[in-house]
Structures are given as structure tokens and as C-alpha cells.
Amino acid sequence: MAEPEPGPGRGGPPSWPRTLELLAGDRDQLVADFFERLEALGRYDDGVIPDDDLRQTAQDTFDLLTHRIAGLPLPAHLRDLPTRLGVRRARQGVAREDLLEAVRLNFRVLWAGLLRAGGDDAAPVLVTHVEEVLAAVEQHISDVQAAFLEERALLERDSRAAAAQAFARLLSAGERAPEVAAEVAPVLGLPEHGGFEVAFVAPGPVRARRENTRELARTGCLTWEFDDGVALVRDPRRAQWPALPPDTAGSVVTGTRGLAEVPAAIESARVVARYARPGEGLIRQQDVWTALARDRVGPVLPGFGREAAERLEGLEPGARARLLETLAHYTATGSVKDTAASLYCHRNTVVNRLQAFREATGLDLTVPVEAARALVLFADRVAAPAGAAATRERRPHPAASERPET
Fold first, then answer.
1. Domain residue spans in the chain?
2. What are the C-alpha distances in Å from 86 to residues 45, 46, 146, 274, 364?
């Protein structure tokens, strides 16, 4: 039988690889320790940086550092973390000394974590590897600082520097959004109570980098880069959406009333954008409301519509496809005549399919509430009719070969 790994309470300190495993598993405590030390320093206590930003950054930073110390390859989402962090803090108007003081805390937090992981007898092992820990932290500090200084220099040369910082204030305002909106409107050059459209553009799979936010801003849009994409805000009377690459996936939210609603609209756009497919352009809430409803209903009502779904699944594939196709087209208009025209079939065929759908699932599509249930229940199986493309900012029309069979 293999001997147990040495460790605290087993007659000796754990090995270095085991110590690093324990350190990685202690991430939540590392984050808590970081916040405690940061609060003691009195840095970042002006509310400019949201708590969720600080917490996510701390989690990602300790993941990055533990990977580097262990000599492991970095996951894709961590590879450009120092650059993103430096750029974001520059745009948020953080003072350089505050940023560096916060980043330097990482070594003390890591060392305390290593002492916890190694136990009382770990000193010889830790001293042997202290240079590896220092090298990882110093490299991170250097990368963050370089990105921060480069971005700040660009902001200082760019007349949009004040607007970028004002926009950052608005995005982190939380419940104070109405008050902050009144303060930043003159800086942003936008009407406090104007109407706005918000878009969220996810990085395309073909592109190696996200959209260049400085280039996007030249179209007159406000821009903000998140880890999962770029948010754009425009006053429709003053700015146009920029030209986007063919593989663009994203969303657009219209009807935002006033700057105070912009942060919430951006979060809404981020949620909707998760349902966009590359090449669809900017989808709207109405394009994905059924999928959104399905994903919200599922956890709250386990088994919702299970019987109807199972009964439909029991049909022959061709028949099932025809009924789902009819569901999509009929609920788009509520008209048997229009459905027949869009499916290139006789109206009696549509009536028969509606009857067959009711018999198979128990849901009558001519009853609005039951039609809504069907759309939610089969949201992942029903494609929007080609006519729905008109509701999107840029959605290619389906080829003739993709039209449904009659």
C-alpha cells in the first residue's frame, strides 16, 4: 500500500506540488484575506470599483498566480488577464499607486496561504521555492502596470478620457444611477433623459481579439469592454452602429429611457447576447424570449411540460418536424392563411397539423396561453420563421434550400 502524502499532522510538511494543490483549493480564503488586507489599507474605498469587479478580479488573479507558480498552462480566459485588468483600472480612473499597492498585496496573501497549506514545518520547502512565487507575482505586477500606463497615456491624449471615466462611474453607480446620471450627462455630452439603444457584441470565433473599443467609439457610441464582450450605447439621433464583422454575435436593447437605465440595459443585453449565434448580427429580446423563459422556468418548475414533450418525442421524426415547423409559423401570425402561405401548403393542411399538434401534446395553438406554453416548452426546437429576420439589425435571409418542406 502506498504511503500517505506527508502533510501537517503526518510527520512532515507536504511536498511542493502538494502544497500548491492545497493552495489552489484554498482560493476562497485567499480572496477573503485579500479583501481584509485591502480594506485595512484604505484603498478602493471610494466606490469607483464595484465589489463584484474586485471579487472576480481577485479570484482570477489567484487562479493565474497558482497556475504560473506550478508551471501549468493558463486557461484561455486568464491569458490576457493582466492586460484587461490594467486597461480597466486606467479607464476607471484608479490612481497608479493605489493599483500597485493592491496588486502587491498578492504576494503577502499567497505567502500566508502557502504557510497554511504547508503547516508549521513548511519553512524549508517554502524558502526553496520563494523565488518562484516572487517571479510569478512580479511578472503579474509588471504586466498589469505596463497595460495600465499604456492605456492611461492613450486616455490622456484622447479627448474621451473624461467621458470614459464618467461612463465607468455610471456603470458602477448601482442604486445611485439616477443621481450619477445627472452628474455625468454633461461630461458624456448626452441628454440625461434621452432615449438610448444598447448593444452587446460578443467576440467572434474567427477573430483572435475582441473589438477595438477605441475604434468603435469613433462612431459616436459609448463603449465599455467586459470579459465576455463589448457594450455599446448610442443616441439614435446622433450615432450609428459601427460596421461589424460577418461572424458577429450579439444583441441590441431598444427603448432605454434615460442614462440611469443604461447600466441595467447593458446587463439585459449581455444576457440576450448569450443566445446569439455567430453571423446573426444583433438579435433582440423578442428573438429569444422563449429561450429565456424556458431557462428561467426550468429551475423553478422541474418537469414543466415534460409529458407534452415526451408525447411529441414519440412521433415519427418527419411528423414531429412538421408539427414544430407549424408551431413556429402559426404562432408568428396567428393566421391559418398566412401560415399556409409561408409553408407553401393548403390551409387545410395547416388546420390538420394544428389538430395533430393538439392531439399529440394536449396544447391547442389557437388558444394564446397554450400557444405561449408550447413556444416556451419547445424553445430549443423551434426556429424563428424567415420573416423574423426583419426584426434584427443584420440577419442573413435563409437560402432557398433551407426553406421548410411542404
1. 16-157, 183-283, 302-402
2. 18, 19, 7, 26, 56
Cα distance between residue 384 and residue 55, in whole Å: 39
Burial class (CB in 10 A: 0-12, 13-18, 19+), 4: exposed
Q: How many alpha carbons fall within 13 Å on the CB side of residue 397?
A: 4
d(CA 343, CA 323): 12
Give the CA dihedral 278, 284, 289, 294, nearest 10 degrees: 30
CA distance 304 to 325: 21
Q: What is the pTM of this model?
A: 0.65
- Tens digits of residue pLDDT in 185-222: 999 989 999 999 999 998 765 444 455 666 666 677 88
- 137, 62 contact by CB (below 8 A): no
User: 252 and 393 in contact (C-beta within 8 Å)?
Assistant: yes
Q: How far is residue 330's CA from residue 352's CA, in Å, rounded to a whole number?
A: 13
Q: CB count, 10 Å around CB of 229?
A: 22
Buried residues in 355-386 as b, exposed as e (16+ CB within 10 A): eebbebbebebeeeebbbbbbbbbbeebebbb
Rounded to whole angstroms, the Cα distance separating 296 from 319 reads 29
Task: Specify the amino acid at residue 166.
Answer: A
What is the fold of 302-402? Answer: Arc Repressor Mutant, subunit A (1.10.10)
189 CB neighbour count, 10 Å cutoff: 12
CATH entry 1.10.490 includes domain 16-157: yes
pLDDT tens digits along 252-285: 999 999 999 999 999 999 999 999 988 888 999 8
Q: In terms of Cα–Cα distance, which of 143, 150, 23 is closest to 81?
A: 143
Helical H runs in 177-334? 177-188, 213-217, 262-273, 285-300, 306-313, 317-333
What secondary structure does DSSP assign to 124-181, as a single string?
HHHHHHHHHHHHHHHHHHHHHHHHHHHHHHHHHHSTTHHHHHHHHHHHT-GGGHHHHH
